[in-house]
Amino acid sequence: MADFAADLLNWGFWIFLFVASYFVGTYREKAHLKSIVEREKRLLSLPALTLKFAEDRPVAKTELVMGSVVIGGDFFKQVVASLASVFGMRISVAEAMMDRARREAVLRMKEKAVGADAILNVRIEGLKIGERKKITGIEAMACGTAVYYSK
Amino acid sequence: MEITNIETIPGKTITTHFGLVCGSTVRSKNAFKDIGASFKNMFGGELKNYTRLLEETRQEAINRMIEQARAIGANAIVNVRFATSDVAAGAAEIYIYGTAVRVE
């Protein structure tokens, strides 16, 4: 009986964590996405381009700008990802995470280029954080050349 | 020091090429801070400690590259690239390189 109770407590803890991390993780993800969409709208006037050439106008200043973010996965995502990778399924929870990280990185880069007219040659890089197969989080880094045209 | 990741500095002309300059840093994570991160990792969200750590590391590598460029008499660095590699478990190297030039 005592054994059973201990087992139940042990399993209960992980199940509780699984359920709780699903709700907390989803809530945080939604809040983050909302803020991303809002800021993206505000920064629409500053285009991030993959082109390498500036417009044919006098340039006042150029500057290297970058933005980076590290986003951690939650317990629910880890379980789902390891289950999905058994069957070779698409891991949509990870896709959402990558998407958030990249968009956030681009936004932070744009926020650093205050008053710029365009950001040229934007590159986005990723870095996995965590030892060996365990993924603690993912880093996305965006960098580009901010161009300020003379007015 | 002007730094870009395109081949030119828009609005200026390159007069001299000095060749490759680079800067690198190897940083490891702080085990104490990592406890907090793994705790936070249960529920997702941004890991601000890591973001800050990587930002500092990149800035340090850029500063080293700038120092090197200054020493050889350049006033700009073009075509800057970033690279990362895992050196050991829990440590990462950030390597930044570009071409030092003199612009007018």
Automatic annotation (TrEMBL), chain A:
Signal peptide: none annotated. Gene3D superfamilies: Hypothetical protein apc22750. Chain B. It comes from the Bacteria. Coiled coil: none annotated. The keyword S-adenosyl-L-methionine does not apply. The keyword Transcription regulation does not apply. Keywords: Membrane, Transmembrane, Transmembrane helix. The chain crosses the membrane at residues 6-25. Belongs to the UPF0145 family. This is Metal-binding protein. The lineage of its organism: Bacteria, Pseudomonadati, Thermodesulfobacteriota, Desulfuromonadia, Geobacterales.
TrEMBL record, chain B:
It comes from the Bacteria. Pfam families: YbjQ_1 (PF01906). InterPro entries: UPF0145_dom_sf, UPF0145_YbjQ-like. Coiled coil: none annotated. HAMAP family: UPF0145. Belongs to the UPF0145 family. This is UPF0145 protein GMPD_40360.
